[in-house]
Amino acid sequence: MNGRVNVAATRSSGGGYGTIILDDGIVYAQDPFSGSCDAILGICSENNVVIANNSNINIHASIFCRTGGFTAEDYNTRPISGTIRLVGGIQQHQREPVGQFQSGSVIIHGSRKNCRYDERLMYNEPPHYPRTGRLEILSWYE
């Protein structure tokens, strides 16, 4: 995709409203780490952002879930489904699973998640993206 876009789903009534379902990947036309990419995408939901039963999906976006979280459909019953690769960021009310693991890192159902923060989001958010105001880093620990 090209451009600066924010997609939102609000809840008007019922449990399923305000949820965004991604059934395929969405990526910028240019590599966001190339230094020449101007595209930026926001995906904002009142509830959840859900990855449909899919495998190996690539997403370039900043994802915001006001009352829910970022998850995968049937994460605990579907077969191993590859990797969700996200370049951007996730802000969620509650952390949700995308896969089921045993012994910490052995996947038995669903997907793995591989996230890489898009540092452009520190200074350049999608249009009309929810904001917290001005933040300042007070300390840093690695």
List keywords for this structure.
42% strand; 142 residues; three-stranded parallel sheet; 9 strands; six-stranded mixed sheet
Description of the molecule:
This protein has one domain (4-122). The mean pLDDT is 90. Strands 1-3-5-7-9-8 form a six-stranded mixed sheet, with no helix packed on it. It has a three-stranded parallel sheet with strand order 2-4-6, with no helix packed on it. The protein is mostly beta strands and 142 residues long. It has no helices and nine strands. The termini are far apart. The chain is 0% helix and 42% strand. A hairpin with a 3-residue loop joins strand 8 and strand 9. The relative contact order is 0.20.
Average pLDDT, rounded to a whole number, is 90
Overall domain count: 1
Q: What are the segments in which pLDDT stays under 50 over at least 5 consecutive residues? A: none
| Derived structural class | mainly beta
- Beta-strand residue percentage: 35-45%
Q: Helix count, per DSSP?
A: 0
Distance between the termini: 34 Å
**Integer-rounded radius of gyration:** 16 Å
**What topology, given as strand order, has the largest sheet?**
1-3-5-7-9-8
Please outline the major beta sheet: 6 strands, mixed
- Spatial shape: globular
Secondary structure elements and pairings:
Blueprint: E1 4-9, E2 20-22, E3 40-45, E4 49-51, E5 57-65, E6 70-72, E7 80-92, E8 99-102, E9 106-117
Parallel strand pairs: 1-3, 2-4, 3-5, 4-6, 5-7, 7-9
Antiparallel strand pairs: 8-9
